[in-house]
Amino acid sequence: MAKTRNITKEDIFIKARMLSEGVCIQGLTEKVPPGLRDISVRETKGDLSDIEIPEKLDYNDVDEIMELAYKSTLQRTTNLAGFSTLILDDSGLLAPITPNKHSRLDLIIKGETVTVSDGGEVLITGRFPKRPKWLDAKLSNGLPIEAALPAASAGIINVVFSLSCMNYNTKRGCRYCNLFANPVSRKIIMLPKETLRQYSKYQAEAVQIATDHGWRGTIAISGGALPPCHRPEYLERMGIVLSMLREYVGEETLKELRLVYNHYPPEDFSDMYKWKEMGIDAVSIDIEVMDSAYFAAICPGKSAYKPHAWWKKAQEAAVDVFGPGRSTGCIVMGIEPMSTLLKGTDERLSKGIIPIPLVFVSAPGAAYWGFRPPTAEWIVKASEKIADAIQKHASKFLGPNALKRMGSRANKKDSKSTQSTHRTVVFDELQRRLQMLGELMKPRKKRKN
Ligand code: SF4
Fold first, then answer.
1. What was the pLDDT predicted at 449?
2. Looking at per-residue confidence, does 101 or 379 come out higher?
3. Given a cut of 60, is residue 445 above it in pLDDT?
4. CB of 305 shorter than 6 A to ligand 1
5. Ligand 1 pocket, 177 CB below 6 A?
């Protein structure tokens, strides 16, 4: 029988504090997940020195490119992002572990138990998630699987068709983003198609290893921004990646995964029908902020391609092609004022689009490295209001009995429908509400008069 969970407002607030303040890690034992220990030591020393790369990179040598990128400190930080988490006791919430030597919150590791405390007062306990076995596997070129799957997590694997971001490389990257900040990506303008084919083979091998171990989640087909002269090739490049996935993972298994297009909006929205034919199930066009002026300031490269209004129109076109609830888009919570965030979220939901709010995290290598995330109070308040809006518009995405079904599953720890991520609080709050609904739905015992 599934174990039950109990999410309280206090659990959510502590998670929000961990997002906002980070944690000062005490006692770097072998229990600390691989990589987190190294990053924590570097963070304490303020050491973000990175690897030297050859003056001339051989764009045809995919093994060398992968090996160099894998060794990069910045890339290791990105790789780590998906699994630097703590599962909080009782609630089962996934909380982030962001090392911050200045934080009031101490993360103390004793045996299997991890404690988060403030000034000696224990706030909560938790445990590290079990590292999936497939993450220890090696690719056919001998490199670790993470060399092909940056920032993989239990729920999402990114499969990219571009290994660098033209925006980042021209100093017009999104201000919070460090996805392609490693020194190898900074050198690459555009990979030759043959190199992409070889790289895609390794990505597909890695996904095959994950699915052979039972991983079933979302594959985001993504990558950095393409240079304008190569943009017309995006469908072809995407096709290379998808055909490798088909070859290695197999059509049947691929049907059990969710394939999400997660890149620029196209010049011509009718391309979305081609995405569908290619096997894409849903679309995530990341508008990042709800206010158009902030978009131009925060995402200068994206805005130079098309204004905010175009990105929003593309989300709406995706609703027409893929259906309500299958058009999503990430939002970085904590950059713009709460008023524009909430107004924009409500408006997007009213059109059948589900914004995915991820709390801003200060990332090494990003222009906003060192900027503070919002406070825990801000995160909780905004998340509650967004949860209100999702509930208000839920009938646009869900069938009439879906809420009841979700409610009855909400207090089971192993329910897939109850999964949130370590960067979001909105879905935890929704989960808490569903759990209460589940309690209300339990059959009452007959009263004795
Ligand atoms: S979010 Fe912005 S900076 Fe980051 S990869 Fe995408 S376009 Fe580039």
1. 42
2. 379
3. no
4. no
5. yes
pLDDT at 11 over 60: yes
Average pLDDT over every residue of 184-190: 91
Q: Which of 166, 180, 332 to mutate to test the pocket of ligand 1 (most atoms within 8 A of CB)?
A: 180
Checking if the pLDDT of 125 tops 80, the result is yes
- The rounded Å distance from CA 261 to ligand 1 centre is 15
Q: Is 164 in the pocket of ligand 1 (CB under 6 A)?
A: no
Name the pLDDT band for 409 (thresholds 50, 70, 90): low
Ligand 1 binding pocket includes 181 (Cβ within 6 Å) = no
Q: What is the mean pLDDT of residues 115-134?
A: 92
Lowest mean per-residue pLDDT among 180-189, 203-212, 283-292, 340-349: 180-189
Ligand 1: nearest atom to the Cα of 166:
8
Is the pTM higher than 0.85? The answer reads yes
Residue type, 283: V
pLDDT of residue 415: 47
Judged against a pLDDT cut of 80, whether residue 296 lies above it is answered with: yes
